[in-house]
Design a protein that fits this description.
By secondary structure, the chain is mainly alpha-helical. Helices cover 85% and strands 0% of the residues.
Length: 221
């Protein structure tokens, strides 16, 4: 173990300088020229293909295990809490209580007396006489128009609520646009700083990226 190991601070500096160097067009062009014309052998391609297939298979297995774990947890909670059974039992109890309450009321009122034909005829004549009166018809028409106006006011209230919700959504969208704009400006500022740091590196064009990083560390020291 005679290999010299870098400290975490040095590793971070190397990482930052490498990123800054890769932003320079001449460095990117040099790396591109060095990679031009290079091809992998068949064994290397097969190895890359196998590794990629294994990575995809491992990711698939990880997803399957995560799904199985979630299903197991859900099954345990369902079995422990018995949510469907409790909901059904609560619904049945509520129905039974409502049926008992209706039965008690019917028992308290007793059977409703049946109206005789003569009584029904009198009721019909009284209703007809009411509708023959102009005052009664006027009152009914006024009440009907008032009810329609109430429904219209109700819909107007709904429309106003929808408009308010649309205004809130627009305000949120504008705030999100402003946030994204600030993030873009911050990214542009960081990119400009990285480019300036790369331009300050005192190296020759023929030097490698490793030489650039080593020289930068010497200058910093």
């Amino acid at each position: 173990s005679f290999c010299r190991k870098h400290s975490p601070e040095t590793i971070e500096k190397i990482r930052q300088r490498t990123r800054a160097a890769l932003l320079r067009p001449e460095v990117r062009q040099k790396l591109k020229a060095a990679a031009t014309g290079r091809t992998h052998e068949k064994e290397t391609k097969d190895k890359i293909r196998r590794n990629r297939a294994h990575a995809v298979e491992r990711a698939k297995q990880e997803r399957e295990r995560a799904r199985a774990k979630r299903r197991a947890v859900q099954d345990v909670w369902q079995a422990a809490l018995q949510i469907p059974e409790r909901r059904l039992a609560l619904y049945e109890r509520q129905r039974a209580r409502a049926a008992e309450a209706r039965a008690r009321k019917r028992a308290q009122r007793g059977p409703a007396p049946r109206k005789s034909p003569e009584h029904r005829a009198k009721i019909s004549q009284a209703i007809k006489a009411k509708w023959e009166s102009r005052d009664y018809r006027s009152r009914q028409s006024t009440a009907s128009r008032a009810s329609s106006g109430g429904r219209a006011n109700k819909w107007q209230g709904y429309e106003e609520a929808i408009r308010q919700e649309a205004r809130k959504s627009w305000a949120k969208r504008q705030a999100l646009i402003e946030k994204h704009k600030g993030m873009k400006e911050e990214a542009a500022r960081l990119l400009e700083q990285a480019t300036a740091a790369a331009a300050r590196m005192r190296l020759h064009d023929d030097d490698s990226v490793e030489a650039r990083m080593a020289n930068e560390l010497v200058l910093k020291a």
